[in-house]
Amino acid sequence: MTTEPTATGGRVVTLTANPSLDRTLALPGPLERGAVARLGGSSGEPGGKGVNVARAVAAAGADVVSVLPAADDDPVVRALHALGLQLATVPVRTPVRTNYTLTEPDGTTTKLNEPGARLDPATLTALEAAVRAHALGARWVVLSGSLPPGAPLDWYASLVRSLRGTGARIAVDTSEAPLLALLAAGPDAAPDLLKPNTDELAQLAGVPEETVAADPAAALAAVAALHERGVAEVLLTLGADGALLSTADGGLWSARPPRTTVRSTVGAGDSSLAGYLLADLAGHDPAERLRNAVAYGSASAALPGSAVPTPAQADLAGVAVTAGPPPSTAPAEAVPAAGADAR
Questions:
Q1: Is residue 270 among the annotated active site residues?
Q2: What digits encode the pLDDT tens for the residues 180-220?
Q3: Within 10 Å of residue 93's Cβ, how many Cβ atoms?
Q4: Is residue 60 in a domain?
Q5: EC number(s) per UniProt (predicted)?
Q6: Rounded CA gap, 274 and 292, in Å?
């Protein structure tokens, strides 16, 4: 029997070093380069991967603090305050970037992301201090998304080391050079939880994404290599195949998503991570943490733009969790549990 996780103990702290104002534009049909598209509608939401995680955690009634660089009068800050989020901001002069998402009727999304404001060393130091201050006594710290211009590629590794003495567990969700730098920094910089998708796992393994997406043995070997580097838990999102949870002590579970009509996969991976954290706050075992992650990711995919789900929208009963690796192919009706979110 599955039950909705109830937020009980512990605070979640998220760092979004490169926040954004996300604009979603709905296309009436497939995107055609060079053509004129009559948009079906548009929406705007505060974004950035850490912000998305914080929004989903807050929507479940859990204690969450979102740390980000932004001026007090920035539209993103005003929007987050309007949602009732608790913020810890470090002021910067440059407005928060705007990201654009083009959505097609079949759920295909195209992202156009601005680079973000350049952060000087003083701002980076202030962000680290803010995260550490709120991490004291927290259950989880989430470091997620791309790094802004000015941040060293190994900044996440430095932050993990800096946060070790706070008592909080550390989750990281990033990609490309910052992800490679994190895992190259050694076991003392390895997070407690890493949430890659198949593209990011392939980056770490140095193989094409198709290899880890189509071959469960290759994916499991790449996950095992992460444990060897010091990562305690790996939450691997597999798109239409659902997700996989692996622990350093040999635990392995896989989950299939429920049937869902996909509207947008933007932010689905962030919602998956939020669902996992919420289940952990509620004291659930690994299998149920995975179930909640996939339910939240699928619920997000059914929503427009980068909207985040509430607990009532997460179809826990529709998620099939089994011990062991997933089968190599997904059923035709399956949908992404977590998209390959642009950072």
A1: yes
A2: 999 999 999 999 999 999 999 999 999 999 988 888 899 99
A3: 7
A4: yes
A5: 2.7.1.56
A6: 9
